[in-house]
Specification:
Layout lengths: L1 H26 L3 H10 L6 H8 L3 H28 L2 H35 L23 H13 L3 H20 L16
Helix pairs in contact: 2-4, 4-7, 5-7
Length: 197
């Protein structure tokens, strides 16, 4: 009886030890990935972040992109919640403000792109045009494979409730209708590069 009790205790201790070791390895975070994720937490990608991304392996880049996408989605959801928490009479003014910010970002991006193209044309820079296949850019390292894009879209759907999806669609519709009223294209980034907010 005593031997059996000792065997059970030893087995339990072994299981606890194996479980603790597994938990440590499972929760161990890649310091390079965590550094880039922290940098992204301070705002949109910068040259410094792009350089750090270039040093990562494809798997590390995927981890960073997933974290960045989740962060952007949380921010977008908060902005949508804030919009619908406004009184209805203040929503058009808020849409106008957001559209102005989107147009400002689009113009800044187009200016940077034109400057990069001018440098490349004059032979000053052999670098790639921002937003066009730059592996260190905010969308660098992502597959353009339709299947991969579909999987990412499905994952976003899985991580949201029907109410969240309905609210996102209502916001997109309101934003698009207001852009049309202002005489602007529905999608400011269509065929131009980065997607707007």
């Amino acid at each position: 009886m005593r031997k059996r009790t000792i065997a059970i205790v030893v087995a339990i201790l072994v299981l606890l030890t194996v479980g603790a070791v597994w938990a440590c390895f499972r929760d161990r975070r890649d310091p390079q990935v965590e550094t880039v994720k922290a940098m992204l937490g301070n705002g949109p990608p910068t040259r410094e972040i792009r350089q750090a991304m270039e040093k990562l392996s494809p798997d590390q880049r995927r981890q960073v992109h997933q974290a960045w996408g989740e962060q952007r989605q949380r921010q977008a959801d908060k902005e949508i919640d804030d919009f619908f928490n406004l009184p209805p009479e203040k929503r058009v003014a808020e849409l106008d403000k957001r559209i102005q910010e989107m147009e400002k970002r689009r113009k800044e991006w187009e200016q940077r792109r034109a400057e990069a193209q001018a440098k490349a044309a004059s032979g000053q820079s052999a670098g790639q045009t921002p937003g066009r296949g730059n592996p260190g850019g905010p969308r660098g390292g992502r597959s353009s494979n339709p299947t991969a894009r579909s999987e990412r879209a499905n994952q976003r759907l899985d991580n949201s409730s029907p109410a969240q999806r309905a609210q996102r669609q209502a916001y997109r519709t309101a934003l698009q209708q207001r852009r049309i009223q202002l005489g602007l294209p529905v999608n400011p980034w269509q065929g131009r590069g980065p997607r707007g907010g």
